[in-house]
Specification:
Rhopdopsin 7-helix transmembrane proteins, two-stranded parallel ribbon, two-stranded antiparallel ribbon, mainly alpha
Amino acid sequence: MMSQRALVTTAAVLWIAGAAVYVATEAVAAAAFPGYSYATNYISDLGIPDVGTVGGRAIDSPRHAVMNTGFVVQGLLFLAAALTTLRATTGGPRRSFAGIAVTYAVGICLVGIVHGGQAEAPTGALHVVGAGMAIVGGNLAALTAAVAGRRTGLPRLYVVASATLGTVGLIGLVMLQLDSATTSIDLLPAGTWERLAVYTVTGWQVLTGGLMLAARRTSRTQL
């Protein structure tokens, strides 16, 4: 059986590794995509295997398998990190956090398995549903961690940062929907709103992993 210190270290590494894999696979896929823009293109554009046009955007992602693998690996690492964290810690809304982690993992795995170019296929809606599950689930995880941290006495900086990231991420998702549904609102390109909703999750993963690495010397950790 792993010691409490080993569990904390493992959870920390899993949180950070998931974020690193996600950002790295995105960068690798984007580098091979002609004219890809982080501001205007969706992240899912990188996972579409077909060359053509989707939503008015030119699609040509030679490394689509890299991005789709990144989605799935991130989901599995996120879930493993969450479950390991629950084993290593005490306190907080544990069942809620576990449910949110499962929602995130299932959602982002769907994003990697059902690509964004399948809008016309019978399974196309699963991609959109998966993206929603991942974005909402990931940002709710950050908000849940903020609530738990406040109850259990975690550093105020962590609590505030987690709450801020989760809130900003959900706002980014709302603005993405509003921006896509109307021409009267066009504050930022769609790709920017999407990344605002997604990178808050990866940022929170790194933040949480860093906190857990710093807490390894304590005999009892509460999250």
